[in-house]
Amino acid sequence: MPSQGDESGPFPYRILFVDDDVSLAGLYADLLRGEGYVVHVAEGGFKALAYLRRALPDLVISDLCMPGMSGMELLAIIRQRFPQVPLMAVSAADILPSDALTADAAINREELAVQQLFDTVARLLRRHAAPISLPGRLPWIAQWPVHGLYLTCAECLRTFHPPSEALAHADITGVHICTCVYCGHEQSFLVGDESEAA
């Protein structure tokens, strides 16, 4: 359980919960507040980005199916701009693997138990609290045979499928290159499981 932020202890963790369904987001927020977290609710991706201009939370939890800006687009933007912030995706529909979403965890809302929510949040925050080095290297993209590959452009921050020819050719170090289908910015990336290179 997180610190309650009394005078003798550290401040409680701050969570940004993003969902266009304010009543449902409020329910989750109340559950998390009961565990001692400070929770702010943003109604959609644009309001979430406005909040992030003012304050940086310790964790972002986002619905995926939202009008205007999807949760997938929002998570990609946050990962690009604030790589140190852990991300969790929640959706009532079938969701992509968390690696394809640039999220640290992905949970199906219809199968979500309250304790699973608490455990996942606690796990992500523990990892966030540990010393980390910010990524100054090429992004890794996991291969998912059902959903394909997703790459987020470092320039325009939009997510797209790399063309198959970019995946078929890599240089001697395994680096693949393609251009963003939206802005034409050149992208360099690696494909596979990062742990394989460890």
Give a verbal description of the structure.
This protein has 198 residues and is α/β, with parallel strands linked by helices. The protein folds into two domains: 14-129, Response regulator (Rossmann fold, 3-Layer(aba) Sandwich), CATH 3.40.50.2300; 140-197, no CATH class. It is 28% helix and 20% strand. It is built from five helices and ten strands, in the order E-H-E-H-E-H-E-E-H-E-E-E-H-E-E. The chain has helices at residues 22-34, 45-54, 71-81, 114-129, 164-168, and strands at 14-18, 38-42, 59-63, 87-91, 105-108, 140-141, 151-152, 159-160, 176-179, 186-191. The two termini are 33 Å apart.
Class from helix and strand fractions: alpha/beta
- Low-pLDDT runs of 5+ residues are 3-9, 131-137, 193-198
- Rg for CA atoms: 18 Å
Instruction: Compute the average pLDDT.
Output: 77
The major sheet is characterized as: 5 strands, parallel
CATH structural architecture of the largest domain: 3-Layer(aba) Sandwich
Strand content: 15-25%
Q: Which descriptor suits the 3D outline?
A: elongated
**Number of helices in the DSSP assignment:** 5
How would you write the strand order of the largest sheet? 2-1-3-4-5
CA-to-CA gap between the ends?
Answer: 33 Å
Q: Helices and strands, in N-to-C order?
A: EHEHEHEEHEEEHEE
CATH class of the largest domain: Alpha Beta
CATH topology (level 3) name of the largest domain: Rossmann fold
**Number of separate domains:** 2
State the CATH superfamily name of the largest domain: Response regulator
Helix content: 25-40%
Q: What's the number of extended β-strand segments? A: 10
